[in-house]
Design brief:
This protein has about 150 residues and is mainly α. It has 4 helices and no strands.
Length: about 150
């Protein structure tokens, strides 16, 4: 190829032979042995840093999910409280179950005895079986059925 300034000749390096320099090879291995631990340490630091960041993002996502679930739980608890309120129960009973308030002649009042009447004060726990047996004998004498269907 011809150039304007000079004639370019093809260079032939066939007669050159590469000589291996052992001292340069030793220097290269020393540098590599000195830099490799630093590189490995840097890679380990970067790996742990990336792992911490990844886990931090995962924790933040889980915290947001927990917050959303807590809000949902509060809303559901409010719905339960509203549904369990006496006016709501009464309106559902009237509308869906066709229930109505009882008439006065449909009411039956039961007499009940208080604990003080059943177990008088001062007799204690030991007197309970004796008192119950006395009541059972009085019922038998009056011809009344036993309590509890026994």
């Amino acid at each position: 190829m011809r150039s304007r300034y000079a004639v370019v000749r093809k260079v032939s390096n066939d007669h050159l032979v590469r000589v291996r320099d052992r001292s340069r090879r030793r220097e290269l291995l020393q540098i590599l042995c000195a830099v490799a631990p630093l590189g490995l340490g840097l890679m380990a630091y970067i790996w742990t840093h990336v792992a911490v960041l990844t886990e931090g993002y995962a924790i933040n996502a889980l915290e947001r999910e927990v917050h959303a679930l807590v809000q949902q739980q509060r809303a559901l608890e409010l719905q339960i409280a509203a549904a369990a309120a006496p006016p709501a129960v009464e309106s559902r009973a009237r509308e869906h179950l066709a229930m109505e308030a009882p008439r006065p002649r449909q009411l039956i009042f039961l007499e009940h005895e208080t604990l003080a009447e059943r177990w008088p004060v001062g007799e204690g726990v030991a007197a309970r079986p004796r008192l119950q047996s006395q009541q059972a004998s009085q019922q038998r004498a009056a011809g009344l059925p036993r309590e509890g269907g026994r």
